[in-house]
Amino acid sequence: MRRSGEALSSPHLGSAAEPARADRSDWATLQRLFPYLWRYKFRVIAALVFMVGAKVANVGVPVLLKTLVDRMSIKPGDAAALLVVPVALLVGYGLLRLSTSLFTELRELVFAKATEGAARSISLEVFRHLHALSLRFHLERQTGGMTRDIERGTRGVHSLISYSLYSIVPTLIEVTLVLVVLGTKFDAWFVYITGFALVVYIGFTVAITEWRTQFRKTMNELDSKAQSHAVDSLLNYETVKYFNNEDFEAGRYDESLERYRKAAVKSQTTLSLLNAGQQALIAVSLVAMLYRATLGVVDGRMTLGDLVMVNAFMIQVYIPLGFLGVLYREIKQSLTDLDKMFVLLEKEREVRDADGARPLALADSTVRLEDVSFAYEPARPILKHVSFEIPAGKTVAVVGPSGSGKSTLARLLYRFYDVQQGRITIGGEDIRQVTQSSVRQAIGIVPQDTVLFNDTVEYNIAYGRPGASHDEVVEAARSARIHEFISATPKGYQTTVGERGLKLSGGEKQRVAIARTLLKNPPVVIFDEATSALDSANERAIQAELRSAAQNKTTLVIAHRLSTVVDAHEILVLENGVIVERGTHAQLLARQAKYAQMWNLQQSEAAPPL
User: Fold this and answer.
1) What is the count of structural domains for the chain?
2) Residue 134 — φ and ψ, nearest 5°?
3) Is residue 143 a contact partner of residue 231, using CB atoms and an 8 Å limit?
């Protein structure tokens, strides 16, 4: 479907960044890349030296070949000349050829560490930056297109260095050396013909390649859209099956592939035009140079060896130039792909550490929300002047209907977003004034929607505290009442859970999440509908473990089922982003208001039919 060597790119790294990217020149992108390479400056310099050596040896080959041809005018019977002169030249010719290859391999060997090191540094920086970006960015991203763009950007580092340092720069050095030799040994017409041909060739190549960019861009965008459709469909495999929409998804994917096919054919047509034009220009210039050299031989101004040397020079120069269109296109594409990664690196973090932020001191683990207001979008406020305190070692529960802002409290406490008004403190410290890492280290959460890594059960539990021993993992699993289930599987703790944990049931995933948090053992714990995926029997069994895990910890329980929060030290009823009631379970029932209505409704739903 795709021509070999045709790099692709995509617009999926964020439309907000596009204006900045449009304003940046290719040179500016190269300047961004240069510091990563300059960390290996001695290798860069050594590679350049080897590259020049390779080209000097390569240019020396036709010169030696000319001498060899001229010396072949040996008188019959002159055995000494036959044994000494041509054999020495032949050995020298072989050594020059060997030197060209040797210097080239030394260049690649020396520079490999710089290339791989630069690619590694940029990839790691992008990876870290992605994790540092806000939750809002990750909720809005298109995973398929973004991962494809990051893959291309990383590959672009290799391509850019390979095509520029290994192809373009050596060719320019060789062309310069050839022109110097032609200009000093022969008349200036050889330089004029070669120079004019190169200017026309490069101008034609750049013009056609720039024209082709529009077709390439369309093809790349369609490729990323097809990728996004495919990834989205596969991630929602069960939903596709539920609604029997395999044919619908295949048709949707095929539409994307068909649009890509048409764009790819158009791109290939323009590529063929470019290649044909390049070869025509090369043929004309070669004929002109050889005609001039032939006239020189006929007039006696040049030897037969000079004719051979000119022909060899032209072949050596035009063979790499024959790939100039591909090289130019790939360099432009690599610059575009690399720039997209740099644009991503420049994307501002919505939530970032304050200047001079220090780690959370954790003098105590009291959590306070003071007059907190928050909205994901200005027109739709979620929390309105919310204030409450979770004393150290106590449990506060927040209940209310869906959409009231309960889970938003957990996101704000984790500082996935910053509040627009008021403040949140832990141990009296505003979480905006301390490092995000220390805040998140102090908090453990069992989320409502548990997503696991596509790895073993042990890996997913140990993720709560990387480096924990197997015995500690088992103890956490026992506390979460999942050890027996794990032990009953053929591979035990080495059982893989599948992508997003889809091989486990909802209840099993939630118990793994509970074990993971128990293993982390943080001073502040959030249970966000922690037992929502469990049946009543398991819920009652784990509820005791959760109470044990919350003992002596500052605990925020976000719940829909009120039966899970009756033991909380304080219960807050949240409705439309406002706390409408607060008190203990008994106090709230006695008021016969919102909480009591919710309680009576859930009790009647739970009661067995008569």
Assistant:
1) 3
2) -70, 165
3) yes
Q: Are residues 266 and 121 part of one domain?
A: yes
Residue 276 belongs to domain with CATH number: 1.20.1560.10
Strand-strand pairing, 570-575 and 578-583: antiparallel
Instruction: Check residues 409 and 215 and name the one with the higher pLDDT.
Output: 409
332 with 357, same domain: the answer is no
What Å distances lie between residue 513 and 64, 223, 479, 487, 509, CA to CA?
74, 37, 12, 17, 6
Residues 190 and 294 in one domain: yes
Three-class secondary structure assignment of 71-105: HCCCCCCCHHHHHHHHHHHHHHHHHHHHHHHHHHH
**One domain, residues 490 and 529:** no
What are phi and psi for residue 236, nearest 5 degrees? -105, 40
Q: In terms of residue numbers, what domain contains 405?
A: 351-442+522-610
The residue count of the chain comes to 610
* All residues at 6 or more sequence positions from 446 whose CB lies less than 8 Å from its CB, including other chains: 510, 513, 514, 517, 525, 526, 527, 528, 530
Same-domain pairing of 335 and 357: no
Claim to verify: residue 422 and residue 536 sit in the same structural domain? yes
Q: Model-level pTM?
A: 0.60
d(CA 544, CA 551): 11
- The model's pLDDT over 118-137, given as tens digits with 9 standing for 90+, comes to 777 777 777 777 766 766 66
By the 8 A CB rule, do 470 and 493 touch? yes
Beta strand pairing call for 578-583 and 421-426: unpaired
Among candidate residues 519, 546, 576, the one where a domain is terminated: 519
Supply the pLDDT for residue 369.
92
| Angle made by CA atoms 80, 84, 87, in degrees to the nearest 5 | 130
Structure-token pair, residue 237: 């495999």
**Residue located via tokens 């030696």:** 64
Select from 346, 381, 403 the last residue of a domain. Answer: 346
Q: In what order do the strands lie in the sheet with 429-430?
A: 380-390, 367-377, 421-426, 429-430
Which contacts of 497-504 are long-range, i.e. CB under 8 A and separated by 24 or more positions? Answer: 497/452, 497/453, 497/454, 497/455, 497/456, 497/457, 497/460, 498/454, 499/235, 499/454, 500/235, 500/451, 500/452, 500/454, 501/450, 501/451, 501/452, 501/453, 501/460, 502/238, 504/452
Residue 6, in any domain of the structure: no
Task: Give, in order, the Cα–Cα distances in Å from 51 to each of 54, 99, 104, 500, 553.
Answer: 5, 11, 6, 49, 65
